[in-house]
Amino acid sequence: MAFNHLPAGVHDALAPLSVTPVTHSVPMAKNHRSDRPQARPASHPSPGTVLDRLTAGPSRAARITHTEHLPPRAGRHAVWPDRIRPEVIAAVQACGIEHPWAHQALAAEHALDGDSMVVATGTASGKSLAYLVPVLSTLLDGAEAPNGRGATALYLSPTKALAADQCRSVKELSQPLGTSVRPAVYDGDTPFEEREWIRQYGNYVLTNPDMLHRGILPSHPRWSSFLRSLKYVVIDECHTYRGVFGSHVAQVLRRLRRLCARYGSFPVFLLASATAAEPAVAARRLTGLPVVEVADDASPRGELVFALWEPPLTELHGERGAPVRRTATAETADLLTDLTVQGVRSVAFVRSRRGAELIAVIAQERLAEVDRSLARRVAAYRGGYLPEERRALERALHSGELLGLAATTALELGVDVSGLDAVVISGYPGTRASLWQQAGRAGRSGQGALAVLVARDDPLDTFLVHHPEALFDQPVESTVLDPDNPYVLAPHLCAAAAELPLTEEDLDLFGPACADVLPQLEAAKLLRRRTKAWHWTRRERAADLTDIRGTGGRPVQVVEAGTGRLLGTVDAGAAHSAVHEGAVHLHQGRTYLVRSLDLEDSVALVEQADPPYSTVARDTTSIAILETDTEIPWGAGRLCYGSVEVTNQVVSYLRRRLITGEVLGETKLDLPPRTLRTRAVWWTVTEDQLDAARITPEILGGSLHAAEHASIGMLPLFATCDRWDIGGVSVPLHPDTLLPTVFVYDGHPGGAGFAERAFHTARAWLTATREAIASCECEAGCPSCIQSPKCGNGNDPLHKRGAVRLLTVLLRGAPEETDAGESAGG
């Protein structure tokens, strides 16, 4: 029997929320005025004082597992390169910036020298100015050219909101420069009547990769004047381009470079990233160009106190009687409440939109018990709000009218909210880069700041709050992407051929995998070779072959049965387990039951309901090895990496009571199997190793299954992935290896680079996995170590002690060179 995990789509059962009223450990002010907001403190409180108040009382103090103190850092100034136009320097000085930081001046120097460059420094270090100053100076030079349009620049951001923010900043900075700089946002929201003006006259165009892929590149003849004059391409927040999305963006950028070359331009790429390991390597994979890195952060920083916080165990019991901790959501709501009572301006980062709304509601209710006026000083902030709503919230937080926000990562990227004193992070955000990005939102004005990471009840969060060195003594992760993924490359070759016939000379640009992919596209009659070039053969748009943010397949539309209203979509790969008939589906805080799933038309009909249960899909998975690329002996066992085919079938679903997790029943489903060709890492053990680990046949399946669960949970510490991006299978006797085998695979067609990263860091990854299981205080396994929220087998069987012994024996044979000198994050 195989024990398996799907990478995405299994409904995550709601963790129990404590309903016990909070006893605030922070002294309450006695004379609040109810008719107006409480006055903001005249000075910023020290982060140590704020933390002391939060942890007053024995029960609160015990929740802190570690406190890290990062001392303040002085800034280092430099001078702008003498090639920067004096008008630009004057405009910067008019904004109150007399001298640049050293890294800003160095980045500008590289940009003017024509070096593609990535600046990878901390939050609030002035990355935007580092690329804006040389770009604006070049646009001014171009405006004085006697002939032609003059220089142009293209800005790419991962979100429309960030592009809009940047456009406002550019307009403010360039206002003294007159009409020589003409910034404009060009995305799906741009009115059609404005688009022609932007194409003809805009010289600083801000857009996103999606619009570049679907709108600009396919219409390149209409953009010929802009592309012919293109001097710079700015790629902001480039660390977000990872996995399959990053691989798609890498190919979109290669298409852009190809068209620019045909028009006679060779733009310089300027990238901005959060602090990352080997930023130049990641930037080169993204752009396909040599890239210089600027990573020595010369900006000043206030004191940062960073606390790790573990919620307490409750009296409730979850699956198979496992102990359950109080949720990170409930803890975060408490902390946001207490910070607001203290008058501390704070943001609580939450991974889901629903979680952000829920934390805000809980905090408002508890603040109303103290003083009704305080309840109005906390709000939610997430994607999906109208731009004017977001701007109003940002202004209210900046002014002190709002004291607290519960926010998704919509506030993490680039939005400038200065003056915050504290950040609460509800659950590890997936990467150390995101963790520091979120923590850096506080203290941007140079004052001290407090950051608190509240652990969720899962293996990775639990490991991190008890192993602070994994956060504070390790570099941030490398960005993982794989532009050579054939499932990514194929549609972009079609799109490139539709833009301009594809020649032999173009193939080096798109990578070595072209040699294998082009014949397949010809066989599928998508491309046809005529003389020396490949041509697109269809009438439909080639750019529509792929959604660069999707995982493949037509998304399933979720439609309200009574009204016909479209509620949203679910990725095709997740539909079988997320919107099967009878599934509980959550949308914008409302609960729906799925009445039917039509796979042929890709529609799920739902109706609003309020069931007292959640649903969890059960499935079966088999995995076949197609090709082994690399294998390394691990003692008698082996560690391997290669191509696999995963076959999965959702066979039933469980109904579980919301609060207790009690199983109310199981319902069979009749859904077709699905196959996925992807990349995987796997390891085998021999009979001798099982004997050494005292693993009997009775506990073998549970030991492998527990090790698989925990290794999936820990991989995001070593690769820039989410546990929902990857899947796993454990088999006591696999037909291809004829040995007990554990697989961890990328949950995307063709792979996303995560399994490859796992292979290269396997020794550190599995060592951390073993430590996470062994150090958990539970008796037989719980969500903090070996239970998984997405287990298709209902977390059965699992054997905690067997997993520890098995990994101990396996790691004894791990060669030192397996890590190839790589650290946990690097």
Structure description:
The protein is of the alpha/beta class and 826 residues long. The chain is 34% helix and 23% strand. It contains 27 helices and 31 strands. The strands form 6 sheets. Strands 1, 26, 27, 28, 29, 30 and 31 form a 7-stranded antiparallel beta sheet that branches. β5, α7 and β6 form a beta-alpha-beta unit. The chain starts with a strand and ends in a 14-residue tail after the last helix. The C terminus is likely disordered.
Give me some keywords for this one.
hydrolase; 34% helix; Helicase_ATP-bd; alpha/beta; seven-stranded mixed β-sheet; ATP-binding; helicase activity
Briefly summarize what is shown.
The chain is α/β, with parallel strands linked by helices and 826 residues long.
Give the strand tally: 31
| Spatial gap, N to C terminus | 36 Å
- The assigned structural class equals alpha/beta
- How would a textbook summarize the main sheet? 7 strands, antiparallel
* Mean pLDDT rating: 86
Q: What is the 3D shape?
A: globular
SSE map:
Elements: E1 3-5, H1 47-54, H2 58-61, E2 64-70, H3 86-94, H4 102-113, E3 117-120, H5 127-143, E4 152-156, H6 160-174, E5 183-185, H7 192-201, E6 204-207, H8 209-216, H9 224-228, E7 230-235, H10 243-262, E8 268-273, H11 279-287, E9 292-294, E10 304-309, E11 313-317, E12 323-325, H12 328-342, E13 346-349, H13 353-370, H14 372-375, E14 378-381, H15 387-399, E15 404-407, E16 422-426, H16 432-439, E17 449-454, H17 459-466, H18 469-472, H19 486-499, E18 502-503, H20 507-510, H21 514-523, E19 527-530, E20 533-536, E21 556-560, E22 566-570, H22 572-578, E23 584-587, E24 590-598, E25 603-608, E26 613-634, E27 637-657, E28 663-668, E29 674-684, H23 687-692, H24 697-714, E30 726-731, E31 741-746, H25 754-760, H26 762-775, H27 800-812
Parallel strand pairs: 3-8, 3-9, 4-6, 4-7, 5-6, 7-8, 10-17, 13-15, 13-16, 14-15, 16-17, 21-25
Antiparallel strand pairs: 1-30, 2-10, 11-12, 18-20, 19-20, 21-22, 23-24, 24-25, 26-27, 27-28, 27-29, 29-31, 30-31
Helix pairs in contact: 4-5, 10-19, 12-13, 17-26, 19-21, 24-26, 24-27, 26-27
Region (Disordered): 27-53
Pfam families: DEAD, Helicase_C, MZB, WHD_HRQ1
Organism: Streptomyces olivaceoviridis (Streptomyces corchorusii)
